[in-house]
């Protein structure tokens, strides 16, 4: 008999930005299969998800992977939060996704900043003042530009050991800012993997004494903010071969700016200013290879005969990937695609 450690993780009810929570359940001889996981419960009154007089909330397992810190005996279990009657809790963004056939594929580019818990500043920033201007830090190498690579590399290895589909990492434009990318065929799984990767990142930060700052504008002034660009496609985008179809789908986003911004992360007005490779928060645009647009049409898509994907550059680093995906899917499905194409 083997004692297995199951780390159930979920999103709390804090607003405007939810946080991860987790607790460990010990079971005998777990198979590693999702269908063999039980629904569990927690005290929702401690997570802004229930009142003290009726505090039980349920944890419904939706994704499981090996826990690289407990290899052989440990698993991470991503959960949806349900009410006691097993209906979706209002904080449950995953339940909003209309993609049961996994027709939508998502690739999220998760940016973040590592912060020294003692100084409260991004790693590499002097205690007084600022480092040199942006420019040398993006995709950098060297001790003066690429800071905290040891933690970043460890996080990458942990994600790969967990079986997450990480497609790359790089240092970002601001000192102390990094990025990784995760892709999945299915919106729910893409969100699951982002949340598990965030959990692993924060847990790794405990070891290094570094805070993971997901705020979209952690340093005010002439510094890039942090985003979570959402690359997405469905069968139509992957196969249509039509510029007109792509334009119709892009145009469907224009009247829905508010609906998207409402779920694209707190304080995103500080990041979406029209500067630092962003479009203004209250405007909408799309363009080929345009990183200053709301929606970028990748040059790959054009060069492959209008068969590929689109990138929504507006989601902030602190956004919930479930809610982002849900809104994008809703908008794409509303597009008036030209008939006969």
From TrEMBL:
Pfam families xrefs: Gln-synt_C (PF00120), Gln-synt_N (PF03951)
Subcellular location field: Cytoplasm
Positions of the GS beta-grasp domain: 4-86
Recorded catalytic activity of this chain's protein: L-glutamate + NH4(+) + ATP = L-glutamine + ADP + phosphate + H(+)
Cell inner membrane among keywords: no
UniProt KW Ligase keyword: yes
Assigned EC number: 6.3.1.2
GO molecular function: ATP binding; glutamine synthetase activity
One annotated GO biological process: glutamine biosynthetic process
Keywords, comma-separated and alphabetical: ATP-binding, Cytoplasm, Ligase, Nucleotide-binding
Primary location class: cytoplasm
PANTHER family for the chain: GLUTAMINE SYNTHETASE, GLUTAMINE SYNTHETASE 2 CYTOPLASMIC
Function: Catalyzes the ATP-dependent biosynthesis of glutamine from glutamate and ammonia.
Oligomeric form and interacting partners: Homooctamer and homotetramer.
Assigned protein family: Belongs to the glutamine synthetase family.
Protein name, per record: Glutamine synthetase
Organism: Rhodopirellula bahusiensis
């Amino acid at each position: 008999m083997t004692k297995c450690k199951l780390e159930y993780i979920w999103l709390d009810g804090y607003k405007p930005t939810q946080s991860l929570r987790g607790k460990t359940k010990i079971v005998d001889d777990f198979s590693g299969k999702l269908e063999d996981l039980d629904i569990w419960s927690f005290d929702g009154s401690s997570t802004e998800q229930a009142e003290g007089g009726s505090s039980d909330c349920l944890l419904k397992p939706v994704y499981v992977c090996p826990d690289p810190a407990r290899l052989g005996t440990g698993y991470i279990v991503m959960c949806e939060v349900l009410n006691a009657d097993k209906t979706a809790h209002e904080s449950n963004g995953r339940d909003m996704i209309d993609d049961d056939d996994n027709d939508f594929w998502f690739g999220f580019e998760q940016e973040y900043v590592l912060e020294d818990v003692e100084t409260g500043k991004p790693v590499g920033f002097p205690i007084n003042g600022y480092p040199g201007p942006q420019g040398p830090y993006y995709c950098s190498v060297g001790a003066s530009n690429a800071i905290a690579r040891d933690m970043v590399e460890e996080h990458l290895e942990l994600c790969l050991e967990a079986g997450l589909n990480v497609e790359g990492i790089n240092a970002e434009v601001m000192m102390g800012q990094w990025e990784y990318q995760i892709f999945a065929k299915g919106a729910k799984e893409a969100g699951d993997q982002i949340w598990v990767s965030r959990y692993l990142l924060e847990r790794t930060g405990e070891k290094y004494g570094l805070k993971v700052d997901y705020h979209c504008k952690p340093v005010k002034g002439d510094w890039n903010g942090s985003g979570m660009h959402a690359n997405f496609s469905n069968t139509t985008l992957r196969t249509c071969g039509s510029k007109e179809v792509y334009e119709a789908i892009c145009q469907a986003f224009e009247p829905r700016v508010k609906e998207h911004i409402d779920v694209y992360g707190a304080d995103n007005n500080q990041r979406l200013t029209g500067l630092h490779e962003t479009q203004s928060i209250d405007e909408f645009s799309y363009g080929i290879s345009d990183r200053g647009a709301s929606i970028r049409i990748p040059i790959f898509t054009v060069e492959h005969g209008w068969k590929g994907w689109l990138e929504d550059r507006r989601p902030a680093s602190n956004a919930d990937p479930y809610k982002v995906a849900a809104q994008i899917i809703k908008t794409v499905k509303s597009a008036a695609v030209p008939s006969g194409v």
